[in-house]
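Good day; I would like, with your permission, to put a structural problem before you. I would ask you to consider whether the tokens describe a fold that such a sequence might reasonably adopt. The full record is reproduced below for your convenience:
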Amino acid sequence: MKFLKKAEEPVESGSEEVEKIVKDIISNIKTRGDAAVKEYEEKLSQSVRPLKLEEKEIEESISTLSFEEKKLIDRVVDRVSAFAEAQLECLKPMEKEFGEGIKMGHRILPVEKVGAYVPGGRFPLLSSGPMVVAPAKAAGAKQIVACSPANYHGSIHPAVLYGLRCSGATDIFAIGGAQAIAAMAVGTESVPEVDVISGPGNRFVAEAKRQVFGKVGIDLIAGPSEVLVLADESAEPKVCAADLLAQAEHDPHARAILVSTSKGTAEKTIQEVDKFLKDFSETSPAHDSWEKMGEVIIAESLEESIDICNDYAIEHLHVHMDNSRQLMDRLKNYGSLFLDHDSSVVFSDKVSGTNHTLPTQRAARYTGGLWAGSYVKVVTHQEIKGAGVDLLADHAVKQSGIEGLEGHRLSAEVRMPENR
């Protein structure tokens, strides 16, 4: 392979300094509860408002939205919920006999208390709340605690609030950053302690999720947005360029990568990116993202291009090829796959229905993204009777003897027929 454009090294999600700051935040909130949360909100977010949004404030905020704005968010909630429900239909309880007198199976149970983090960011992302909350509601969570920064006129943006409410959030707090993750993980006087925390965020949020994992479950630790466009001579450079910049504008450290088997397509795409960027606002993160993190790679063959994609294990993988579906089984590592020229990642970001909380920084090698299954537990059970007891007890006694485990041997031995 050959680089026409090489990126800087991807930014690390954590550092010793960030780790220490977050550790102190978690410890302080665990000790001092709401008082500590309010101090961090004032210091880090310049917010002095009450932590929880009560019903009156939520309703007044939502009332400022137009009918059209609500309609857009309703569609997002409906589609994300529908896809989550369809995913859950694939998860089935099971029970069967595994030999005479040995019955085993599993059940699918919802996580009861979910913590949903919705970042404030540079823009009010209308889909972020539904993406995190709607699958939890579909899974059957009884309580969904949502936290989002108070960075819109001293509160949460009305559209974000509406999305959270419609998706099923039961408690909404104007808390951002690591302090929000800590509050949901340890519980305070106001913020309920949850069982699992999900949702994207900045490096402090990611580090907080890493540190509270074990105390609570987490979905994944996500970094800046990533897209890899896989293209050949059938691709339209202008469209490829637009798809690269759509993700580049998320963050200065976002990664927009083009891998092409056609040098002509690659060169024309670079030209189109440069043209588009001239019309982007000077403050758009897309400028820094493309300059520092953008990559363009020429693959010598289709096979090499597929190997590159699998090695990069990218968050969003968009195949701009006429035969894209034929490649599906050969593409193994990605957060979400987009087949054919018109399957824009933006559709998924906004409204198609698949979740946009996805693995980054090569985590797609071992995990997928947030989905309805992130909010359920597969728990096993067994019932042993009659001949099953005779078979398993005899085995357990012999194995425990070899292992030297007296209690294990005893528990099995008292169930053997000669000892009843």
